[in-house]
Design goal:
- This protein has 114 residues and is an all-alpha fold.
- The chain has one domain.
- Helices cover 82% and strands 0% of the residues.
- Keywords: Membrane, Transmembrane, Transmembrane helix.
């Protein structure tokens, strides 16, 4: 880790942390089904990855990048496979992961994670 954490990396880490928190809360509401437990585990892992970003972990950056790419692919597949999931829904579901990728691999972020 070289230097001060860029604002874009901090923004992505905060968003990931909040996403993990909301996933855990959603899992608590569904606690009596297997899906609730899966949501809680995913939420905990998301928070762990976000904390890694705060500390400058390149592994956390790579894990989050893979998750963002999967999010974008799922949105594109849904566009073709789910009736009523149109272009605007695809763009809406893809924009935050795309912004996250851009921020995680900006020149300042690359220097930070070296």
């Amino acid at each position: 880790m070289a230097g001060q954490r860029p604002g874009g990396v901090t923004l992505v880490a905060v968003i990931a942390w909040l996403n993990g928190l909301f996933t855990i809360i959603s899992g608590v509401f569904h606690i009596f089904s297997w899906a609730g437990w899966v949501q809680i585990i995913i939420g905990i892992l998301t928070i762990a990855v976000s904390l890694g970003l705060f500390r400058g972990s390149n592994l956390a950056r790579m894990i989050l990048a893979v998750i963002f790419v999967i999010d974008i692919v799922v949105a594109i597949v849904a566009w073709f496979a789910v009736e009523g999931f149109g272009l605007w829904a695809t763009l809406g579901a893809s924009i935050l992961p795309l912004i996250g990728l851009i921020l995680l691999f900006s020149p300042k972020a690359n220097a930070f994670f070296r």
